[in-house]
């Protein structure tokens, strides 16, 4: 294990000596399934891409990988082929709408936490290949706090928690924030409230979570924005076309566009150049101990 950690430290040191374009790593998660997390991830990434920020979506929703399905794509290779060393990471990157790049999860992601030290080292080296390649890497994780999801939440630059105004979704969104915090990890969380009927409903939902987080966890959880409830979303899913592409003038599409614009104009994390990926690897080193 010490040899593996040392190899990862060498990667970190090499990054520090070779500054490149900023790469921010974002994890998108939710407390429960069915809140539209993957649909949000995909369309949020598309809006970032349209704004001129090169973005890559990494489908890390273990067992329920569906980013490719939402785009009507059938990639020949997925993370499975990377883990088996049949392909390099650049070989499993595919382009979707607006040249958005993505890595399909496939069945192989179930093997990630059962890798040998050598295989984990290889995975880290491959992730390092993306440093400076894009402006944003977005990990779409599974709902709830599995061991795998926790690792991506901890290692990312920031985490977006997607919820809805439903009481169970609100409770579960707070629960995932509380569980991560209770384990002693400092994570930059932001809230997105999906499927709101009006702005007031979205604000009320976000305020509930922000209040209890401040009251009981002493955490400030800013709200990134709201996405309107819109029948166009389900229609787009059936067509296997992202709703911002199929229905660009729909309420949900306009909501995502405003949210993405607010995201890139807001204050960025302090990590710059190779900092985000370097931080990712540093945290992975700690998780390996």
Short descriptors:
alpha/beta; 12 helices; Rossmann fold; eight-stranded mixed sheet; about 15% strand; globular; single chain; about 290 residues; 8 strands; about 45% helix
Structure in words:
The chain is an alpha/beta fold and 289 residues long. It has one domain (2-288): P-loop containing nucleotide triphosphate hydrolases (Rossmann fold, 3-Layer(aba) Sandwich), CATH 3.40.50. It has helices at residues 2-16, 37-50, 67-70, 79-83, 117-128, 147-155, 167-182, 199-217, 231-239, 243-246, 251-265, 275-288; strands at 24-30, 55-60, 93-95, 101-103, 136-141, 158-163, 189-196, 223-228. It has an eight-stranded mixed beta sheet with strand order 3-4-2-5-1-6-7-8, with helices on both faces. Helix 8 links the parallel strand 7 and strand 8. Helix 1 (2-16) packs antiparallel against helix 12 (275-288), helix 2 packs across helix 11 (251-265) and helix 7 (167-182) packs parallel to helix 8. The protein is globular and about 50 Å long. Mean pLDDT is 84; it is low at 15-19.
């Amino acid at each position: 294990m010490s040899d593996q950690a040392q190899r990862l430290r060498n990667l970190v040191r090499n990054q520090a000596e070779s500054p490149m374009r900023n790469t921010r790593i974002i994890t998108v998660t939710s407390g429960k399934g069915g809140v539209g997390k993957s649909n949000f991830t995909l369309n949020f990434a598309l809006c970032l891409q349209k704004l001129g920020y090169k973005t890559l979506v990494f489908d890390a929703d273990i067992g329920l990988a569906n980013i490719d399905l939402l785009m009507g794509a059938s990639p020949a290779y997925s993370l499975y082929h990377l883990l088996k060393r049949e392909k390099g990471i650049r070989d499993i990157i595919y382009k979707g709408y607006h040249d958005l790049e993505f890595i399909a999860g496939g069945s192989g992601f179930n093997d990630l936490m059962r890798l040998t030290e050598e295989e984990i080292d290889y995975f880290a080296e491959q992730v390092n290949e993306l440093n400076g390649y894009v402006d944003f890497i977005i990990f779409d994780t599974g709902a709830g706090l599995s061991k795998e999801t926790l690792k991506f939440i901890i290692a990312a630059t920031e985490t977006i928690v997607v919820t809805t105004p439903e009481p169970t979704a609100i409770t579960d969104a707070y629960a995932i924030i509380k569980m991560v915090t209770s384990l002693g990890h400092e994570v930059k969380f932001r809230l997105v409230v999906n499927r709101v009927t009006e702005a007031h409903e979205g604000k009320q939902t976000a305020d509930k979570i922000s209040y209890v987080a401040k009251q009981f966890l002493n955490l400030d959880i800013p709200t990134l924005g709201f996405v309107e409830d819109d029948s166009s979303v389900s229609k787009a899913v059936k067509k296997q076309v992202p709703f911002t592409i199929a229905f660009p003038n729909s309420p949900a599409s306009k909501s995502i566009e405003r949210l993405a614009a607010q995201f890139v104009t807001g204050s960025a994390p302090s990590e710059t150049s190779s900092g985000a990926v370097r931080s990712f690897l540093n945290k992975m080193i700690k998780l390996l101990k």
